[in-house]
Amino acid sequence: MVLRKLDPSDGISVGAAAYFDPTCTTAGTCTPGTISDTSLTATSQATATCLSAIAGTTRLYAPAVATSAAPCFSTAPATMIIELFGAQVHLQDAQVGATYSGTPATSLTNGLLMGFLTKAEADSKMATIELNSGKLSTFLPGGGSDCPGYSDMDMDGADRGWWMYFNFTATEATWGGP
Question: Which residues contact residue 109 at a Cβ distance below 8 angstroms, ignoring those fewer than 6 apart?
């Protein structure tokens, strides 16, 4: 995630934000990785919640899905490519949000990357988890295997699939890319 500025002021566009699958050094310098970037628009909020799970799309996960509360930012929905169990997948309606930490802000907490993985996309990708390989969908509840015995499938408009939620934290780093 690249934010052109960390400004928690209400309604401020924090510039172009992009997911680059970066390669980072232990010295704190990051450069673009192997996955194409996704241009996003991020806006700060000084009050309220910026991003949280969609009601009815989660179970009692541990840890719980993060909620990005003010001061925070969130992005507009977009299609994003991420790597999941060795497969590059497209998440539709993907968003990123996080809470600013520090004065001035130098890190992010309660970060959430969320997006919808269609069943068709999960059926078309091969994944490897531990020693098992197969269609990504077979590793997701309701995607074709009998385990875990329940379905976690959701809808996004007319598309069946899974809302995916990824918690994160982040610290300021030097960006060596575009």
Answer: 98, 99, 101, 169
